[in-house]
Specification:
The protein has about 575 residues and is mainly alpha-helical. It has a six-stranded mixed beta sheet. Strands 1-2 form a two-stranded antiparallel ribbon. Strand 7, helix 25 and strand 8 form a beta-alpha-beta unit. Helix 3 runs antiparallel to helix 14 and helix 20 packs antiparallel against helix 21. It is elongated. It comes from Trichonephila inaurata madagascariensis.
């Protein structure tokens, strides 16, 4: 219910999302443990899309979630969409995207979402979620914003309206936060090893708060906002509004990627723990079908919930039958118990959301950890986090992906480049500057370049080599035993070589041959050798470079006297 309100629709829509998609995922999903339904980040992205679309909350003679199919078909296309119509259309669009990626086996696209990117995005989204809950937490009114600096404007409104805080709401919020935080931080940890099932403290707080609110008449006497009416029964099927689909393409694609990435990461985590395999493309199909089906029943896009999945796994759930049992309980709530939540204070739902956000805020530690390991990884986290906070969640994700891809280019433009030395009496070659036992062989330079060789870094490759082995004759005109007469290029780290990279290799070989220095290649991959053969690489040099399986083979070959250099 809390995430339904967060998604800019009603509390009952959150219940529907936790019911209908599970039925489809039960049939098609490959994970035995994830719990499909609502998730904070997805709800936040939905609210951003809803307010950015200019949709209205409702309209007179609005077609509700219980409208008949015929009524929904007769509605006028030129009417402005409601919040519910936007999120159900998004659910269908998200489902279509996921089905498309699943059919064409594009599950690997999520590799662009690195751990640092997801962590920074989640932490930034958590800031938006927490800020959005301030209005219910303090009982104040703040404006609705979308786009860049939305979070800043919301925080400004919060501070400006603190003078209008509802004292009763703050007291209820403080008590609920204290109970939830203390239980989850202190009591739950101590009982974890003694109880097979976790105590549903969130449900207990909701029941107690609803009961007290009903008998104490919180809404009338203290002006505390409550959930109010939740309709009983299941919603009638209503088709989404396809006329607004084109305007939601961008938002739906971002939500589809994030929802799948979150679900897949959770599925991988639990499958690894319990030693079974999942199929990413089948997961895409399962989530896609679930979203398309649920879009007809007043549902917004679903995803795996991190906390709920862990609770389901900890409770002993070993298959998706646990999800069906959860649906059965929800069905009872929807058919009979829903009206009992009329007096539930909205601030209680906000408290539940805030406490649930703790793991996402703790991901800020990932930045400190990444900074000590890789500055580029830390930069990905920071750029994604700041972009999400300042620009909005959808733009933050886009900026994070673009910057992450940019760092890939940086890593290839400025790769590690070293000269290797040999460990005595072995065939092991390591960085001569880093390992004292590795000694360079007289007359030989072994060049190690940790990157692909292509148009972006070809000049760096050539300059780095020629800086240490210059072509000028006055530098080479020294004692014979000290002269460099062989260069071995370690190609084992070349993930690929393009035409520009191949031309650079040719230039290097030819220029060194002119001053009497032979160039050997070692560890060339099969794909690299294929490129060399198709480009007639050997035919284009006057003296063929020798190609060896390993560096050691190239070193040993160079010591054989009077053997001409040939391709091998």
């Amino acid at each position: 219910m809390a995430y339904g309100v967060l998604a800019a629709v009603k509390a009952e829509n959150g219940l529907y999302v936790s019911f209908f998609p599970v039925l489809i995922y039960f049939l098609l999903g490959t994970s035995r443990h994830i719990s499909v339904g609502t998730f904070a980040v997805i709800s936040l992205m939905l609210s951003s899309a809803v307010y950015g679309s200019g949709a209205i909350v409702s309209r007179e003679q609005n077609f509700t979630s219980h409208s008949s199919l015929n009524e929904s078909i007769e509605r006028e296309i030129d009417l402005p969409p409601t919040h519910l119509e936007v999120v159900t259309t998004l659910a269908m669009a998200v489902g279509f995207w996921q089905l498309f990626m699943g059919i064409f086996h594009l599950g690997s696209l999520t590799v662009v979402l690195s751990d640092q990117l997801v962590s920074g995005f989640s932490s930034g989204a958590a800031c938006h979620v927490a800020t959005s809950q301030m209005k219910d937490l303090f009982g104040i009114h703040i404006g609705r914003y979308s786009g860049s600096l939305k979070l800043i404007y919301m925080l400004r409104d919060v501070f400006q309206n603190l003078i209008n805080t509802n004292t009763a709401t703050v007291i209820v919020s403080a008590i609920a936060l204290f109970i939830l935080a203390v239980f989850k931080e202190q009591i739950d940890g101590r009982l974890k090893g003694r109880l097979k099932m976790p105590i549903p403290i969130d449900l207990i707080v909701v029941v107690i708060a609803t009961t007290v609110s009903y008998f104490a008449n919180f809404h009338s006497l203290y002006k505390i906002s409550v959930i109010e009416n939740i309709p009983t029964g299941l919603p009638s099927p209503v088709p989404p509004r396809l006329d607004i689909l084109p305007s939601l393409i961008g938002d739906s694609f971002a939500i589809a990627i994030v929802a799948f990435a979150i679900s897949l990461s959770m599925a991988k985590l639990l499958s690894k723990k319990h030693k079974y395999s999942i199929r990413p493309n089948q997961e895409l199909l399962a989530l896609g079908c679930a979203n398309v089906f649920a879009s007809f029943f007043s549902c917004y896009p679903c995803s795996a919930s991190l906390s709920r999945s862990l609770v389901q796994e900890r409770s002993g759930g070993k298959t998706q039958v646990a999800g069906i049992i959860s649906c059965s309980i929800l069905l009872i709530v929807l058919l009979a118990l829903a009206p009992m939540f009329y007096s539930l204070p909205k601030c209680i739902l906000s408290c539940i959301i805030l406490v649930a956000l703790k793991p996402m805020f703790l991901q800020m530690k990932d930045f400190v950890k990444a900074w000590g390991i890789s500055k580029l990884d830390a930069a990905i986290w920071l750029v994604t986090f700041l972009s999400t906070v300042l620009l909005d969640v959808t733009y933050g994700l886009l900026v994070g992906v673009i910057f992450s891809l940019f760092t890939v280019i940086i890593r290839t433009v400025i790769p590690s480049k070293t000269f290797l030395g040999r460990i005595p009496e072995t065939d092991i070659y390591l960085d001569a500057r880093r390992y004292d036992m590795a000694h360079e062989i007289k007359g030989i330079k072994i060049f190690h370049f940790e990157s692909a060789l292509y148009f972006i870094n070809k000049e760096l490759f050539k300059c780095s080599l020629m800086k240490h082995v210059p072509l000028k004759n006055d530098c080479l005109d020294i004692k014979e035993e000290e002269r460099i007469h062989r260069i071995i290029i370690d190609c084992s780290t070349f993930t690929f070589v393009d035409i520009s990279g191949l031309e650079t290799l040719l230039e290097i070989i030819q220029e060194y041959q002119e001053v009497g220095v032979a160039v050997f290649l070692s560890g060339c991959s099969i794909s690299m050798q294929a490129v060399m053969e198709h480009a007639k690489f050997y035919e284009r040099v006057s003296q063929h470079p020798s190609v060896f399986p390993t560096i050691h083979d190239a070193v040993e070959f160079q010591y054989l006297p009077h053997i001409s250099i040939s391709s091998s």
